[in-house]
From TrEMBL, chain A:
Keywords: ATP-binding, Cell membrane, Membrane, Nucleotide-binding, Translocase, Transport
UniProt GO BP: carbohydrate transport
Name of the protein in question: Sn-glycerol-3-phosphate ABC transporter ATP-binding protein UgpC
Gene: ugpC
Protein's organism: Psychromarinibacter sediminicola
GO molecular function, a single term: ATP hydrolysis activity
Automatic annotation (TrEMBL), chain B:
Keywords (A to Z) from UniProt: Cell membrane, Membrane, Transmembrane, Transmembrane helix, Transport
Protein name (record): Carbohydrate ABC transporter permease
Origin superkingdom: Bacteria
Record membrane topology: Multi-pass membrane protein
TM region(s), chain numbering: 12-33, 90-111, 118-146, 158-180, 201-223, 257-278
Principal cellular location given in the protein's record: membrane
UniProt GO cellular component terms: plasma membrane
Length: 350, 293
């Protein structure tokens, strides 16, 4: 019913391409996250869905209706802004009531609806305050309350957590996830923080320079990145990427050689593997090089080498001790490796 | 106050207070002098014998029998019907302010929210017109106004004053609107407002301090204007400032100068009241902290 479809949507300003041929079908009640670095077109995509930005090409369908030409108010959406967008002259209660007022919902229902929303975002004590008297987290909850006070077909959230401090971000994140599952409303969430994307999303859309790089569940995207961009964007730390040459299943790079790789590809490739999949070994490793640094993360230690132009990291147990400059070896079995074409960055499927 | 770190040394405090008191006296002296003098007769206030006469007022005592007299006020307001000039000023000022603000808020908002490059050039052009001496515009208007037979009317003057004032209101309101985040209007539009409702319900309530400050400046321009009103209004439609000037210009007739002095004092009072009344709104800052965290 509230399925949201974007059919080959593009946004251009003159010769500048903001979003290029964005094609996606978002299911009813799905929690979709648009993820990408700043300037990748994710916010523009969301603003086109909201109607705050015109669509240059393509169609946006909300349910059974093409909404390209509709004003934001006629699209039956609600949106949470990064900088909240609260009405400074109104109290929390009036802020949350605002959509009901302008949409001419019968007055008798206002109090009940607003109170329900206020309860859901836990702002009962702050009802009569103005936004200036609230903390950042409380303001963001007012914005959430205003978004949920009427039941829209689609929720849009534009980096709602990026103005909050780290601790608050975690708890508000959980609250958003909980609210969405209770309200069962299709949600599109924009963020540049891959951890937010992984924790919240049912499906993640990774974007870069206006194009979709990969669409998939968080697990898909983590385990099977479609290209080097996704591989280097997802995960903390991101996937290690080493450029080298592949021949007959043998990958050779500066200070690294891995055997047993697929034989159907050859030439210039980039080898990728995750820091937590490899392990430090006393000898016989695929990497054997002087250590560049060792960092204690708490639950583990991170060993880093300088390999070629970049850094490569491997996680090991927290009690591991070595000095910078010592030769340290790591085992990188072929099963954990991903191969990418160096020129195009695309994944070489095995 | 008791914080020793912020406490200033005594001599410095004394010096600053002394400075402020002296400055206040210098600044207020012309007003006080005129106000005091307005209750005297011309022979005292413009005495050739001794300037002290303006303060002690022997001629006032002699002519009217009292230390103070309301002759100047009576002459100006009743004999010369200065109330009609005050009424004209009121009409001109109210309409100039209302029209300038209406056009200014709409235009300033449009310019502030428009992403196009021409906004810069419009604002620049506005600045050029604002910088022009008013008289250059007025001299150009005179002939067409005579030809069209619209010279001398209050309406014509209001239109001209709005035109002269508009670049400034546009500039000022434009920068006020720029300080209001776009998120506010966008939130309102997503919440169910049309563009105009978003402007009216979400932006304008936050804009009051800006609108009032700009309105005050437009008021002052229209209220104090001499060039335009003196040249464009007929005798019966003239406003306070040109009328005061004509009182002053009739020195050969004894006593009329005092009408000017009384009229000047009458014209100052509304300004004081207005600024006192709106001083809180003039201090803006309503949006601070509310939209951004």
């Amino acid at each position: 019913m509230s399925r949201l479809q974007l059919k080959n949507v593009s946004k251009r300003w003159g010769s500048f391409v903001g979003v290029d041929n964005f094609d996606l079908d978002i299911a009813d009640q799905e929690f979709l996250v648009l993820l990408g670095p700043s300037g990748c077109g994710k916010s523009t995509t969301m603003r086109m869905i909201a109607g705050l930005e015109s669509v240059t090409e393509g169609e946006i369908w909300l349910g059974e209706k093409m909404v390209n030409k509709l004003d934001p108010k006629d699209r039956d959406i609600s949106m949470v802004f990064q900088s909240y967008g609260l009405y400074p002259n109104l109290t929390v209660y009036e802020n949350i009531r605002f959509p009901l007022r302008v949409r001419k919902v019968p007055k008798e229902q206002h109090r009940e609806m607003v109170m329900k929303a206020i309860e859901m975002v836990e702002l009962e004590e702050f009802m009569d305050r103005r936004p200036a008297e609230l903390s950042g987290g409380q303001r963001q909850r007012v914005a959430l309350g205003r978004a949920i006070v009427r039941k829209p077909t689609v929720f849009l959230m534009d980096e709602p957590l990026s103005n909050l401090d780290a601790k608050l971000r975690v708890s508000t994140r959980a609250q958003i996830k909980n609210l969405q599952s209770k309200l069962k409303v299709t949600t599109v969430y924009v963020t540049h923080d891959q951890i937010e994307a992984m924790t919240l999303a049912e499906r993640v859309v990774v974007m870069n320079s206006g194009r979709i790089q990969q669409v998939g569940t968080p697990t898909d995207i983590y385990n099977d990145p479609a290209n080097t961009f996704v591989a280097s964007f997802i995960g903390s730390p991101a996937m290690n990427l080493v450029e080298g040459k592949l021949q007959d299943g043998l990958f050779k790079g500066p200070g690294i050689r891995v055997e047993g790789l697929p034989k159907h590809a050859s030439g210039n490739v980039t080898l990728g593997f995750r820091a937590e999949d490899a392990e430090i070994v006393p000898s016989g490793g695929q990497i054997a090089a002087p250590m560049y640094s060792i960092e204690l993360l708490g639950e583990a230690s991170m060993i880093t080498w300088r390999i070629g132009a970049g850094l490569v990291s491997v996680k090991t147990n927290k009690d591991y001790r070595a000095e910078i400059g010592d030769v340290v070896e790591a085992r990188i079995p072929a099963e954990i490796c991903h191969l990418f074409d160096t020129a195009s960055g695309e994944r070489i499927k095995t | 106050m008791s914080n020793p770190a912020t406490k200033k040394p005594m001599p410095l405090v004394a010096l600053s207070i002394a400075f402020i008191v002296i400055w206040l006296m210098i600044a207020a002296f012309p007003f006080l002098w005129t106000m005091w003098g307005s209750f005297k007769v011309e022979g005292d206030f413009f005495s050739r014998a001794d300037w002290m006469n303006a303060i002690t007022g022997p001629a006032t005592q002699l002519q009217t029998g009292g230390r103070f007299t309301l002759e100047g006020y009576y002459g100006a307001w009743v004999e010369q019907a200065f109330w009609r000039n005050a009424l004209n000023t009121l009409i001109v000022v109210v309409f100039t302010v209302l029209i300038s603000l209406t056009l200014g808020t709409l235009g300033g908002y449009a310019l502030a929210r428009s992403g196009f490059k021409y906004t810069f050039w419009i604002l620049m052009a506005a600045l050029v017109f604002r910088a022009m001496p008013h008289v250059t515009l007025v001299s150009g208007y005179l002939l067409p106004f005579f030809e069209l037979n619209i010279w001398g009317h209050l309406t014509t003057t209001i239109v001209v004053l709005v035109a002269i004032n508009q670049p400034f209101t546009l500039w000022m309101l434009h920068s006020f609107f720029l300080s209001i985040p776009k998120d506010l209007d966008e939130a309102a539009m997503v919440d169910g407002c049309t563009r105009f409702q978003a402007f009216r319900l979400a932006v304008i309530p936050v804009m009051w301090p800006g609108v009032i400050t700009t309105g005050l400046f437009s008021f002052l321009l229209a209220y104090n204007d001499f060039t335009v009103t003196a040249m464009l209004l007929s005798e019966e439609n003239t406003t306070m400032v040109p009328q005061i000037d004509s009182f002053l210009g009739s020195t050969q007739e004894k006593g009329k100068v005092m009408y000017a002095v009384a009229a000047v004092v009458s014209a100052i009072l509304p300004l004081f009241l207005l600024i006192l009344f709106f001083q809180r709104q003039i201090v803006s800052g309503l949006t601070a902290g509310a939209v951004k965290g």
